[in-house]
Amino acid sequence: MAADAIVIGAGVIGLSTAIRLAESGARVRVWSAEPPADTTSAVAAALWGPDFADPGRAWAYDTEPELTRLAADPATGVHLCRGTQASDIQDEPPPWVERLTDVRMLEPDELMPGMRVGLKTTAPVVDMPRYLDYLTARLDVEIEIRRIASLAEPAAEAPVVLNCTGVGARELAGDEGVRPFWGQHVVVENPGLDEFYIEAVLGAEWAGFFPHGDHVVLGGVTRPDVWDRTPDALVAAGIVARCSAVDPRLADARVVEHRVGLRPWRAKPRLATERVGAALVVHNYGHGGMGVSHSWGSAAAVLGLL
């Protein structure tokens, strides 16, 4: 098939980038080593939130209006949710607090033990399996399951290649700055929660839960440089215990599923171009745990490079 561009990767970054290209009039193909439902994006919780530094912060600001628009349609998997954000990192609110919606700062007696600052806000929360289905349908292009060894392969078939391969970019782009940050979530039946909760912490474990109608996604944990995507029963028990300390209703909620993904961590997301043969390659990867928040903003930035 003739194509103006080939997108490599079918997670939230790849699909959002492909949609922006297709809706600008380009003929787009998508190659992926695995279907969207098996990507790390499918494992995400996922709550929109700003980043602490540009370009991620600007991308997040650009993404929020699109997610808010999509929240009007339940079929997208996006909904606006009230909830709590807390932190043990500092005593002051985050620098982007004024960009949040319906903010109320919490009093000290409203914080969980160990948390130093907290707020309530309303933000887009995304049921990722349903959202990826929506993005795939919106793109309306068959995703070709194809594992490649070199960017020269797509470069031989299209004049533009978009590298949105997440942790796969470590090998495919020869970028040793990309590292897997292993994460696990526990999905439980919803015992009646309608608000999210998330902690930003200095450590590798925290409490976070996100209601999506009939189920709740619980987290969180991170382990750098772990590639094995096997769920860990002890990690799962710790996640449930931490979340139950915040809302006791979660203690006896029936576990539906365990999800494991590899966050594509990089010191700074890579948005850059290079030539591979006659093709222009645009790299768009390394978003860590901010892929959903960066997605539409980074996709727009990709178009700006073409």
Automatic annotation (TrEMBL):
What EC class does the entry list? Answer: oxidoreductase
**What's the EC number here?**
1.4.3.3
Keyword list (alphabetical) reads:
FAD, Flavoprotein, Oxidoreductase
- Reaction catalysed by this chain? a D-alpha-amino acid + O2 + H2O = a 2-oxocarboxylate + H2O2 + NH4(+)
User: Pfam families attached here?
Assistant: DAO (PF01266)
The leader peptide range reads: none
- Domain FAD dependent oxidoreductase residues, every copy: 4-301
UniProt-listed InterPro entries: D-amino_acid_oxidase_CS, DAO, FAD-dep_OxRdtase
Q: Which cofactors?
A: FAD
Family to which this protein belongs: Belongs to the DAMOX/DASOX family.
Q: What is this protein called?
A: D-amino-acid oxidase
Q: Which organism is it from?
A: Actinokineospora diospyrosa
